[in-house]
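Work Package 3 (structural annotation) set out to generate three-dimensional models for the target panel prioritized at the project kickoff. During this period the team completed the workflow that converts sequence records into discrete structure tokens, so that structures can be stored uniformly alongside our sequence database. As a representative example, we reproduce one entry of 263 residues exactly as it appears in the project archive.
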Amino acid sequence: MKISLQDIVIDKDTQSRDVISEQVINEYAEAMQGGAKFPAIVVFYDGLNYYLVDGFHRYFAYLKLDNTEVEVIVHNGTKREAEIFSWGVNDKHGQPRSNATKRLIVLKALDDPEFAELSDRKIAEIVKLSHAYISGVRREISKKPIELPKVATKNTSKEAPPAQPHVPQDIPHIDPIEIEIKELADLNQQLHEENLKYKDKEMIIEGDSAKIEETLEELRKKNKILEMELESIKNNRNQLMSENAELKKTVNYWKKKYEKTLK
């Protein structure tokens, strides 16, 4: 069946790639113009919204070509079911998943209270990755060893006391992704303001309304792509925050262990 591109929801955590490639979008658009046939994109319908789960590069290629309708495969399900389904897409078709994408998907699953309790093999079936890969990521985030350096101590006795581990203080998290998010948000706001300016001009300029509409449409497309990039950066930020939280847990563990040795 076909539905309007405007009816498809793309910004509700159902996109699991670490980044949307503008180069791939352009390649798809060029191939489509040349007559290439692409598979239908996949959406979940909850009775109100169509959530895109598979085919984001195709979606933006259609948008770039000013297509108003697109062929879709529809699954009935909730937004959460759509998000879980998106973890396993592109394992055998489309643009291959990058290592960063695979890791991001597994981190999402292990951070979910429902899925964190599942076996590695069960999670592997859902995200379409090997259970060994799931196990590796789980071990990495649950048991991050810290190599504690020795502390030099002054000693007046003949026998040196055992060296005490250096306990690092809580590490402040400086998130560079936040800077990129702010820059993209500012750029998005600028584009929005430009849209408003062009709308004002459209009312006073005679005989050039087609040109203004063309410019507005181009700005709308750029807005869509910026929103996807912003969502991707937020996902990266969440991953960094998760890793930082695990590091803090490990630091606190060694801090408590050190404090016990002083009693």
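The beta strands are 2-4, 8-9, 41-45, 50-54, 69-76.
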